[in-house]
Amino acid sequence: MSKIRRDYKYLPYIQALFITVLLIVNLVAAGKVTLFEFKQISFPFGTGILFFPISYLIGDLLTEVYGYAPTRKVIWTGFGVLILANLMVQLILLMPAAPSWPHQKAYQEVFAISWRLAFASIIAFSAGEFTNSFVLAKLKILTNGASLWIRTIGSTICGEAIDTLIFYPLAFLGNPDFPLSLIYSLMIINYMCKILWEVLATPLTYLVINWLKKSEHEDHFDRQTDFNPFKLT
Fold it and tell me: How far apart, in whole angstroms, are the C-alpha atoms of residue 59 and residue 46?
């Protein structure tokens, strides 16, 4: 198996962008927005849904250009960063507020997240991203590098399916506020929104990936790659 080159110009920035997106999504996930209304009926969306698919786009880019091995490293880095971020937030929330700080209640409402939700989010993210990267790498070999859209959309369909199937049961199953019918609805709607996001972003994905391949002089094929997700070398 060939070693990862050390002279990539843009790889460190793309890895940093991937981690940044994960952190931002984790911070804003509690919010909800309404993108449109129809006949006075609003359609609210969790803010995480709006931006989380960006991580899959970046994962596609990393695997398509640089290969599975560097993508595996950045996924594990993201896993560690999410754990650290949640630990730090929980620690801050446990500390007594300063007497001069009048917004502690609002602060807690925004940033407080149950350990169950945090655990579900981290596990689902890792499994989904590894699935996304693995499927894209294998499809690239099967298609011999042709039809990029098949790989980007196909890998997202698989990765987001794993993410969705893990997150919602882990996060909400057994919660009286979330009956099975609601969980199923959330899974289907959110999953379809994420896939639609990927489809709409396909032209931009093509532009960025083609530019990167030319700039980095790299178009990696994982023909001899060890796909063990726990191997970091």
Answer: 22
CA 92 to chain centre: 25
CATH class of 11-34+43-216: mainly alpha
User: Residue 144 corresponds to which tokens in the numbers above?
Assistant: 């011999």
How far CA 207 is from CA of 52, 67, 91, 148, 194, in Å, comes to 20, 18, 42, 11, 20
Sign of CA pseudo-dihedral 110, 88, 126, 204:
positive
pLDDT tens figures, 3-60: 566 689 999 999 999 999 988 887 776 666 666 666 666 566 666 677 778 888 999 9
Q: Report strand pairing: 32-38 vs 41-46.
A: antiparallel
Provide the residue ranges of all domains of the chain, joining segments of one domain with +. Answer: 11-34+43-216
pLDDT 10s digits, 176-222 = 888 898 889 888 988 998 899 899 999 999 999 999 999 999 999 99
pTM score, two decimals? 0.86
Up-side HSE of residue 66: CA atoms within 13 Å toward CB? 26
Q: Provide the 3-class DSSP secondary structure of residue 129.
A: helix
Looking at the DSSP assignment, which residues form a beta bridge with residue 32? Answer: 46
What are the Cα distances from residue 230, in Å, to 134, 138, 233? 13, 18, 9
